[in-house]
């Protein structure tokens, strides 16, 4: 039996309650989205927190279902939120972490890291300061890391190396870098998370082939990073879901262009196909990796 854990789903995104770019297009179908995932081999979902308010909402959602969990942290593009009162903001993040750890709902610090592709949202110097500051959460909680890295040269690697004694486990999610970047992270003992954004080009697929199975994790990054027919790995997709454009929304069906955790099967199909590995065996290895890192219980 295939068992999957989606390590990164942005279920707090307004799209999952029917709101697209500030316009309400349909009623919320979030409960059906979660149900659809669990009907398609997904055993657990980690809801991503990307700011203080989002982390609070992620924890609220996680408490609505026994197999939902969440992260707490601030995405690099949101780090300007620290600037008004950094100490108060940090203390509030710590409170959310400790609160959610009591019932084992908060399972990682993140999503945090660096993103130099979108400096219009937060300048580089601010990102670096508050990437560093969030290791206070790591030291306080001893939780694993859920990391974001985009086009940062050596800066991300150098920060992780500097803090390597602060944590036991961490995963760089939605990895789209080169073989060389991947190897640096693997050498630091990090795991690498793969989703549709990691499977777009032939170069991406070559990276996926070289990641050791015991350092691999899978995710959707929903509602983003769906696997599209234009992607290099698409030929391996076997599982499909009926979709309709948002303007023709039907309750109980997927929305075209809005990724969901149920598509974890597609990620597994592409990754196993590209690597030439048995799908069930690979799924079991990735499942064990994920259970261990996030201290999940069966």
From TrEMBL:
A Gene Ontology term for the protein's cellular component: cytosol
Keywords for this protein: Hydrolase, Metal-binding, Nuclease
PROSITE patterns to which the protein is assigned, alphabetical: TATD_3
Signal peptide (residue range): none
Protein name: Deoxyribonuclease TATDN1
Record family assignment: Belongs to the metallo-dependent hydrolases superfamily. TatD-type hydrolase family.
Binding-site list for a divalent metal cation 2: 148, 173
Residues binding a divalent metal cation 1, per UniProt: 111, 221
Listed GO MF terms: 3'-5'-DNA exonuclease activity; metal ion binding
